[in-house]
């Protein structure tokens, strides 16, 4: 959840929040510009991903998780999104879980944000 990741970003920059850094690197590849010049664009891409993921969750949860509490389904979905981000992190940025200069901190921050996103997504969809 971006609000919980904001203080980490303020302290350590984009590299402190792995999926923000990933989106910034994706935008740099797309626009062929230095990543440090694409902070806003990287965050916008992150929010677009979150919005699309929320729509997919809302459409798919009735089909794939009947009988599973919606909060647990959201938590699992958030974890799945984090795993996907970690799988594409190393090929795109060159850093992954094991070789990040900040060790596991950015990935733990990212995991916490994705789990919170999943919980809140479950709450919103259940309304």
Short précis:
The chain is mainly alpha-helical. It has helices at residues 2-12, 18-31, 39-64, 70-93, 105-126.
Main features:
mainly alpha, 76% helix, globular
Mind sketching the topology for me?
Elements (H helix, E strand, L loop, with lengths): L1 H11 L5 H14 L7 H26 L5 H24 L11 H22 L1
Helix pairs in contact: 1-5, 2-3, 2-4, 4-5
Q: H/E series, N to C? A: HHHHH
Could you report the average pLDDT, rounded to the nearest whole number? 86
Label the structural class: mainly alpha
Number of helices: 5
Helix fraction, binned, reads over 70%
Distance between the termini: 19 Å
Q: Name the overall outline.
A: globular
Q: What is the percentage of strand-forming residues?
A: under 5%
Number of E-type strands: 0
* Rounded radius of gyration (Å): 15 Å
Unreliable spans: none
Sheet bearing the most strands, described? none
Description:
76% of the residues lie in helices and 0% in strands. The protein is globular, with a radius of gyration of 15 Å. It has 5 helices and no strands. The two termini are 19 Å apart. It is mainly α and 127 residues long. The mean pLDDT is 86.
